């Protein structure tokens, strides 16, 4: 599995050497029934990254090979010394690339062993805004619909997402369903998804919240609100309507016409799935906009089979980290602020309640802002993946950095200790996809002698800093699964009816699964098959869904005279996260897509404008050399860079959503400079510094 669609793959190990001989889609897996995308196959069978095969430690400024006992001792000593001063001096970063078992163990150690607030996974970098919106609306995390609803929908509204690139197998289902309906995309860029859609609404960058408000206002004005659903099952609608801006004003702010607002409103007359992704979440307005999209579903009655809000998750086990890792909630979505839940977790882990933080921490940007003395990263690459990556580098350079990963990365190059870990095809455990389905993963090949399982590495560190918290290596993934599944009993994310035995038999099961025979379906919905009546029950204080009235702050960096262009970022078809697995085709400098009119307007900033089109993209934080690619799909005034290139996030803004702490990756102000001008400026700055 390579993304959060959760496709089952069959991995065949080599008969003659270490590694995988072949990878294909698993026809018996209930999620994908044998379908697989080319990227998922290639990244498993033949990843481009440079493998880590021996523990490394830094001596005299250089990384050198060492023994596991030496590397683990150095990592453990650094963490223990920092803990003795202040647990928050230790920052731990996990990832959606871990199994559930490894994510659970890391969270148990970070929260229950170390006791740090400075712990995060990938969630706050990609999904936290959607999570906050779900909690505000429904009292619980995760999308209400499932994949079963895709063929039942008549309209597919894709907003700020590009599933044709990011989720190819899922997008195949969407296109098949849209053959008899509508596929409409809202995005500033004519993405590959937009190119095959029935319609593309080319919104201004950052205008998503205004557009959602305009559509809701138009629903009200044209009497399209499902009054029976709103009155029977929701609260807060009148307040939201009272605070809506005029439709014309909101449409103008979004950069769309009133005809386009009407078009979107009319789509909601039919059963509609509203999908959104990082284009919505990764913004200072991410939570407000995600909530506004949920508002559209509630107001139009688009909640129920074949309809509803469906956020698209990126990393393979991002949903698993939300349920089990103790990042945003305790296991099973138990809230941090609730003392009874903290007590339950403390008792299960055998640690004092006082050791457990009473909030989930500041998020990655805030975490690095506190300049922790020790940073431990697991299957993640913050030096390329964090916003304002130059500032992130300064924090990592000043810390004792422990990196646990399978591949060489920019973060590895700064490490004081490197712990080489197994990856997909080498590890055993489970994952959860974006529609809440839990699947088994198994090793198809042995690991080299210098590589260890994530679980065993985490347990070995735990033995040094929190003895008795975790079993000593080798750790049984099945035992860890049973432990976290038991902790979810009775929660909204109940996995207590799951076991390896059940998953081995059924291949994959969707939660909530509170007993050995049950499986989750459409959330909050109870249909009466005889009368076609349905009832709704939401885990909110009133039992009703809640409309969101968040307005969202101003965008942090609108274009101006000094920085007249807007930078946005997105995925490439063959790219994977920060590119460590897909580097063979990555150029030294990123390729900046821009409209030909934009390039012509800034011709003085382009070297060899008829040939290589070299330029420098400059933000308030950094300058990055780039090659311009004229592209009519990118609107004038916008510059598009791949999220997979390790230089891109040197430019992006560290501003975060005030509700979710998710960074504003998708919009910042930039300008283009001639490479010679930038080189002269950099030389002068270096001379002044000297």
TrEMBL record:
Molybdopterin dinucleotide-binding domain residues: 565-669
GO molecular function: iron-sulfur cluster binding; metal ion binding; molybdopterin cofactor binding; oxidoreductase activity
Classification via Pfam families: Molybdopterin, Molydop_binding
Any one GO CC term of the record: membrane
Amino acid composition bias (Polar residues), ranges on this chain: 534-551
Residue ranges, annotated region (Disordered): 528-595
Positions with biased composition (Basic and acidic residues): 582-595
SUPFAM superfamilies per the UniProt record, alphabetical: ADC-like, Formate dehydrogenase/DMSO reductase, domains 1-3
Domain Molybdopterin oxidoreductase residue range list: 52-463
Alphabetic keyword roster: Iron, Iron-sulfur, Metal-binding, Oxidoreductase
UniProt superkingdom: Archaea
Matching PANTHER family: NADPH-FE(3+) OXIDOREDUCTASE SUBUNIT ALPHA, RESPIRATORY NITRATE REDUCTASE
Name this polypeptide is given: Nitrate reductase
Taxonomic source organism: Haloferax sulfurifontis ATCC BAA-897
Upper lineage: Archaea, Methanobacteriati, Methanobacteriota, Stenosarchaea group, Halobacteria
């Amino acid at each position: 599995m390579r993304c959060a669609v959760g496709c089952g793959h069959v991995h065949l190990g080599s008969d003659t050497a270490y590694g995988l001989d072949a990878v294909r889609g698993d026809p018996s897996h209930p999620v994908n029934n044998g379908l697989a995308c080319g990227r998922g196959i290639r990244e498993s069978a033949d990843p481009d990254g440079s493998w880590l095969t021996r523990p490394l430690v830094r001596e005299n400024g250089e990384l050198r090979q060492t023994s596991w006992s030496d590397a683990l001792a150095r990592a453990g000593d650094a963490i223990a010394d920092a803990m003795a001063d202040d647990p928050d001096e230790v920052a731990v970063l996990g990832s959606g690339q871990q199994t559930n078992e490894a994510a659970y163990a890391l969270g148990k150690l970070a929260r229950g062993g170390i006791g740090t607030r400075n712990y995060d996974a990938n969630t706050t970098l990609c999904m936290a805004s959607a999570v906050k919106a779900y909690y505000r609306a429904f009292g619980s995390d995760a999308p209400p619909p499932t994949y079963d609803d895709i063929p039942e929908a008549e309209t597919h509204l894709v907003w700020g997402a590009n599933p044709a690139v990011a989720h190819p197998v899922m997008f195949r289902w969407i296109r098949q369903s849209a053959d008899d309906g509508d596929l409409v995309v809202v995005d500033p860029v004519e993405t590959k998804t937009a190119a095959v859609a029935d319609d593309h609404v080319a919104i201004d960058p950052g205008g998503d919240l205004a557009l959602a408000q305009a559509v809701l206002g138009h629903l009200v004005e044209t009497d399209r609100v499902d009054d029976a659903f709103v009155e029977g099952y929701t609260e807060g609608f009148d307040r939201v309507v009272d605070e809506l801006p005029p439709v014309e004003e909101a449409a103008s702010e979004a950069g769309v016409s009133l005809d386009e607002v009407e078009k979107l409103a009319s789509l909601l007359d039919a059963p509609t799935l509203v999908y959104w992704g990082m284009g919505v979440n990764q913004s200072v307005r991410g939570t407000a906009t995600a909530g506004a999209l949920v508002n559209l579903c509630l107001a139009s009655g688009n909640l129920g089979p074949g309809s509803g809000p469906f956020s698209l998750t990126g990393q393979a086990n991002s949903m698993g980290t939300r349920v089990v890792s103790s990042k945003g909630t305790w296991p099973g979505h138990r809230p941090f602020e609730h003392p009874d839940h903290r007590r339950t977790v403390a008792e299960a882990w055998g640690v004092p309640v006082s050791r457990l933080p009473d909030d989930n921490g500041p998020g990655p940007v805030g975490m690095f802002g506190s300049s922790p003395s020790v940073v431990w990263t697991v299957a993640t690459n913050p030096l390329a993946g964090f916003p304002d990556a130059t500032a992130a580098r300064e924090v990592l350079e000043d810390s004792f950095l422990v990196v646990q990963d399978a591949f060489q990365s920019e973060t590895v190059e700064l490490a004081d200790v490197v712990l080489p870990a197994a990856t997909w095809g080498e590890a055993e455990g489970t994952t959860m996809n974006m529609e809440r389905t839990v699947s088994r993963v198994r090793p198809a090949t042995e690991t080299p002698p210098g590589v260890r399982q994530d679980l065993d590495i985490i347990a070995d560190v735990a033995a040094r800093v929190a003895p008795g918290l975790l079993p000593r290596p080798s750790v049984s993934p099945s035992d860890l699964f049973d432990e976290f599944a038991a902790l979810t009993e009775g929660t909204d994310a109940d996995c207590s009816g799951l076991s390896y035995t059940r998953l081995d038999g059924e291949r994959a099961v969707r939660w909530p699964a509170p007993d050995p025979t049950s499986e989750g379906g459409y959330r909050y919905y109870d249909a009466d098959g005889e009368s076609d009546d349905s009832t709704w029950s939401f885990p909110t204080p009133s039992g009703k869904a809640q409309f969101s009235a968040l307005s969202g702050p101003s965008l942090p960096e609108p274009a101006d005279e000094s920085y007249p262009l807007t930078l946005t970022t997105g995925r490439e078809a063959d790219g994977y996260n920060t590119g460590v697995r897909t580097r063979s085709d990555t150029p030294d400098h990123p390729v900046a897509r821009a409209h030909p009119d934009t390039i012509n307007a800034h011709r003085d900033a382009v070297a060899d404008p008829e040939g290589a089109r070299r330029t420098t993209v400059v933000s308030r934080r950094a300058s990055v050399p780039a090659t311009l690619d004229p592209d009519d799909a990118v609107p004038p005034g916008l510059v598009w860079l791949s999220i997979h290139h390790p230089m891109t996030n040197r430019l992006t803004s560290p501003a975060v959503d005030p509700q979710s702490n998710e960074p504003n990756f998708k919009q910042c102000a930039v300008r283009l400079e001639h490479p010679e001008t930038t080189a002269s400026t950099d030389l002068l700055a270096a001379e002044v510094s000297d």
